[in-house]
Amino acid sequence: MKLILAVDALIPPLTGIGRYAWELASHYQACSKEFDSIRYYFADRWIADPADMLQGLGSEAVTPTRDRGFFRAPKSWRRWRMQRDLRQHVFHSPNYFLPESVDGGIVTVHDLSVFKYPETHPAARIKHFESGFASTLKRAAHLITDSEAIRAEVIDYFGWSPTRITAIGLGARQEFRPRSAHEIAAELNEHGLVHGEYSLCVSTLEPRKRIDRLLAAYLDLPSSLRTRYPLVLAGSTGWLSDALREQIERGEREGWLRYLGFVEEAFLPLLYSGARAFLFPSIYEGFGLPVLEAMASGIPTLTSNCSSLPEVADGAAWLVEPDDHKLLRDGIELVLCDETWRRAATARGLHVASTVSWERCAKRTLAVCRRFG
Question: Is the pTM of this model over 0.70?
Fold first, then answer.
């Protein structure tokens, strides 16, 4: 099989889509002998090693030469060769869009938030979808989604045949696992945290994540509970509103909230495994990878009862309507305090997480690609 994987999402620090692309690329590199040809594409260039992208070192492949290597091929000839290679390979874009020169490729559509919640996206991104996504759908041979929930949305929203869309769930890295207090005490102490004595939310701070609702519900908990288990927020600022910023600053002043901002990849699994509970009330997700990572870490989890999140949790999380203040507040208290539920949720979450992996995701994705190669 001849395959091209687009790696335009490999921009550090990795977002969810970047993580997805990196896990696919890593798996394909590890099993490269299974391919007749495997290539990595970025902006009309071949990338020799996708890992270089994470270091900002993405490099163009060696350009063909003539006569002892002293003559650089004309741009028109290189463009012709690029077009030939694109035609001879199955092309997979993990990031919504096919290059204009690709006809018949495979595209991963992670969610439809740009259409359903345009207010949560920058204007430039909305314009990009408006100008280019219809063309991608017209040329795509097959679509992949991260969940059955998004697969159903794509079928309904764009009128695509169910036979042309495959749902393939994501995975959690092996670094996300339960850890004892002794194992991570030093790392947590560097951030002023103690194992089992904080709740956690890992999320970009943007409207559809409902962080404002989470903070309002947490503030309404009994003060003794907030003091005993302060809330830790980790994630990039995203589209941080002034009102949310004020909520965060108030919580930090009152001592029941810590905002860590972006957390380095090496520390993130430790942060998860030290939490007493994980809280993720997002109203819309293509998959909800943080929920899976929390469950793989053995952490009792609360999440929303909408979009793909119940599918990902698979009975292991406490589900709430994120816009219902009382249900959210009561759910947080239960997840923090109900020991019987917590034990059952931890066991169920570990089981659910054990049934999925990035390797399984990559193998199923490759199986789809093989159907067209």
Answer: yes
